[in-house]
Amino acid sequence: MTTVNDTTLNKSGTAPNKSGARADRTTATATTPAVRLADIAVRFRTKRKDVTALSEVSLDVARGEFVAIVGPSGCGKSTLLKLVAGLLAPSAGEVALGGEPVRGPRRDIGYVFQRAALLDWRSARRNILLQAEMRGLPAAAARARADELIRMTGLDGFEDAYPHELSGGMQQRVALCRALLHEPPVLLMDEPFGALDALTREQMNVELHRIWRETDTTVLLVTHSIPEAVYLADRVVVMSPRPGTITELIDVHLPREREYAATLATTEFHEATGRIRELLGAAGAHD
């Protein structure tokens, strides 16, 4: 069984402070992990056989921490996000958000998928505000929050544009704004930039990292890109082939503020990406 506990967290319950990567928290609330997976297993039955998707997965994610999850296709990465969101119940073990057991779909998370999934007949702003309508949030406050997020993500001037008038990167910015509108403490991202071209993906990595620094939201990101995982995260979870379990947790020894090109040239970046490739046994296959 792979367990993450005091060996990877400070006494305060936060991730290790590496060149300003995370400040210690001293309140009792802050010591409770934002996300806890305890001895998780997921099993399901197909027409042909029983399948174990995840086995003996344990992980604590500190408040405000950015954790990336990488691993072979079919190892259960997306399943982990569904467990945290309450969209799937574990066959064994327990999932908790902020110390509260997850017993069903949660409203206190944000979720960004690979496809932006915007409504074609609604403008960018109205797609963002769909979150407020579904949750019954106060209209004036929601509009003010939407305008703040539009500025934060560089969508100024495109608020009234429709999805077909936006590039793929802009559509994902709208989806990110929608997920953050209600200021969720935990943001789940399932390969959100996988369909973008390389240059746009780099730009989105930079934007996401900046937004994370400004909001201090807890982020769990599933990605097939090792460089993306290391550039963005405080820690990288490396999964084994199915049944998925945690092979190793990689601490990313980089400062909180990371200039993209300079970060990719550092020894720390190359050491982390090299170790992950070694663990996955497919050097260069996940670039």
Keyword list:
287 residues; alpha/beta; 6-stranded mixed beta sheet; 4-stranded antiparallel beta sheet; 8 helices; globular; disordered C terminus; transport; ATP binding; ABC_transporter-like_CS; ATP-binding; ABC transporter ATP-binding protein
Summarize the structure.
By secondary structure, this protein is an alpha/beta fold.
Secondary structure: elements and pairs:
Layout: E1 35-45, E2 50-61, E3 66-70, H1 77-85, E4 92-97, E5 100-101, E6 109-112, H2 124-135, H3 139-152, H4 168-180, E7 186-190, H5 198-215, E8 218-222, H6 226-232, E9 235-239, E10 246-251, H7 260-264, H8 267-280
Parallel strand pairs: 3-8, 3-9, 6-7, 7-8
Antiparallel strand pairs: 1-2, 1-4, 4-5, 9-10
Helix pairs in contact: 2-3, 2-4, 6-8
Protein name: ABC transporter ATP-binding protein
Biased composition (Polar residues): 1-17
Domain ABC transporter: 35-266
